[in-house]
Amino acid sequence: MDNLTFGGWAGISVLLGFAVLMLLIGYFSGRGQPNMRHNMKSYYLAGGNLGVVVLFFTLYATQYSGNTVIGYAPQAYRVGFPWWQSVTFFTVVMAGYMLFAPRLYAVAKKHSFITPTDWVRHRFSSPAVALLATVLMLWGLASYLLEQLIAMGQAIAGLTGDTVPYQIGVLVFVCVMLIYSWMGGMRAVALTDVMQGIALLVGIVALLVGGFVLAGGSWSETTQYLVEERPDAVAVPPLEDSVNWFSMILLVAIGIAMYPHAIQRIYSARSERTLKRSLKRMVWMPLITAGAVFCVGMLSTQIFPGLSDGESEQLVGRLTNAVAGINPVFYVVMLLFVGGIVAAIVSTSDSALLSFSSLVSKDLYARYARREVGEHRQVIIGKGVGAAVVFALLLLAWNPPATLVEIFVLKIELLVQLAPAFILGLYWRRLASGPVFWGMAAGAALASMMTLTGMETVYGVHGGLIGLALNLVICVVGSLLVRQSPSEAKAGESVAEVV
Amino acid sequence: MSESAPSRRREPIRNPWIWIGLVVIVLVGIPWYLPPGTLYPLLFGLPVWTLVAVASSVGVCGFLHWALSKHWNLVEDVEEAAASGASKDGSESWTT
């Protein structure tokens, strides 16, 4: 992000503006719900009463973050046309929800679930399965938060041209995020998501328009340039890459739908109709979001030819600067856009952090404490744990371990192992807790081992999916072989009775 | 809940044609059926296989929108009947 055409105090002013807006939303959200500090459902699920528009935007902010722009445009730049797959895999996430959300919503409303582990505990009556699921979710969420914090630092440094040191900028926004989350809980998180989602959407469209202007206004020229200079980016990919494409679609479709904060948004919906309407709008967003980001990455191959992998990571910063230099209107819009990216990263982080806090306070602290813990204390513990975790992750964020997209694959390969417990558990009464535990453990171990040894795919199939296949086999074969306990059988029956 | 409107209860997972249709549309969008390395023809400034992939993505969006609209109704009737006293139209709201 060298040679900024904007930055400095203009950037700082925009960031401060977004920060003040978030704090105001947090303040007014908290004022409207006096019981929030003493009630888990109010604090973590906004009372299970989110309407269509707010639910839509909070789902949107959960699925797309500033990182979707910062990480995926460079990926399109490096991979070329085959990266169109990103649009499909974000769309198919809605199919992932369709596999389990209808029934999980009905069961969650009936039994007042707050965390995803509530379902696991309800269905399997097994502390071991609940603990393992909680640990996997916390691991995935921590990885997710880490990724967002790294992206937040890059965006802030880019916007202010290092006028604000990287660490101070991140610290300020983390504090803003903690304060508005504490003041308004899930309601504040969801309402800030509306503001942050709109900023991201408008900014992406403006960046795309600016990119077209810089590239000469013709898509054909970009393709022709690639055909001559980088034919691999235009050509039909090898068969193994096509297998990898389909594997990525499956992995992301199931994995993103298993995000703990995504599951909690299902719980938060006011009604089935509300949830359905929000998801129907979400179905079209990949074309506008991932599709536009793909186009930005492709246009950049012509605008900034010959970038190395490392240099391409800074692509959005470079393009934003170039677009801002077109004329004063683009300058102002780009200024707001990069502020919007920071806001979008904050909006994704707050959802993950709130979910993390709920899992620790309800599923670990309240469950394993030696005495009865009231809801007021659980909320306080959740807030404290959230702050402690985010500051611990900040120390890691200041030494980023790999490129952003690689980190993203890591977390999803673990979260996808929760799928049998949710999907099979909702529809197959015979599914037993023992096989679910061992399937989840074996799937997570295999996926982790493959990633750690650098063998992320086999013939294009991701380690997470191979782990999921092993997980499924153990769940199905094991459940056919073992006898269910009476409590498990009863739980399986009760799920069927809900609908 | 089952007494209220059993004939209208629908879950997407129970209709295999939704999933078969979805997989077919997704597979059409992946260029596994063309020889690797194929560059031409280009149409509207894009390789034809990319245009097919774009059409497949739009198709997936429309298909899922339809499936969500027509094949999901578990507790909606009961909830809306219960809520009708408070709000007749179930319209969208900016409030939470």
Automatic annotation (TrEMBL), chain A:
What keywords tag this UniProt record? Cell membrane, Ion transport, Membrane, Sodium, Sodium transport, Symport, Transmembrane, Transmembrane helix, Transport
What Pfam families has UniProt attached to this entry?
Answer: SSF
Membrane-traversing stretches: 6-30, 42-63, 83-106, 127-146, 166-185, 197-219, 245-262, 283-304, 324-346, 380-398, 404-428, 435-455, 461-482
User: Gene3D superfamilies, from UniProt?
Assistant: Sodium/glucose cotransporter (1.20.1730.10)
Catalysis: reaction(s): L-proline(in) + Na(+)(in) = L-proline(out) + Na(+)(out)
Q: Does the keyword Transmembrane helix apply?
A: yes
Q: Where in the cell is it found?
A: Cell membrane
Membrane topology of the entry: Multi-pass membrane protein
What family does this chain come from, according to its entry?
A: Belongs to the sodium:solute symporter (SSF) (TC 2.A.21) family.
Q: What is this protein called?
A: Sodium/pantothenate symporter
**What is the native source organism of this protein?**
Prauserella alba
The encoding gene: panF_2
UniProtKB/TrEMBL annotation, chain B:
Q: Give the transmembrane ranges.
A: 16-34, 46-68
Source organism per UniProt? Prauserella alba
Reading the lineage from the top rank, the first entry is Bacteria
Q: Which UniProt keywords are listed?
A: Membrane, Transmembrane, Transmembrane helix
Its name, as the record gives it, is DUF3311 domain-containing protein
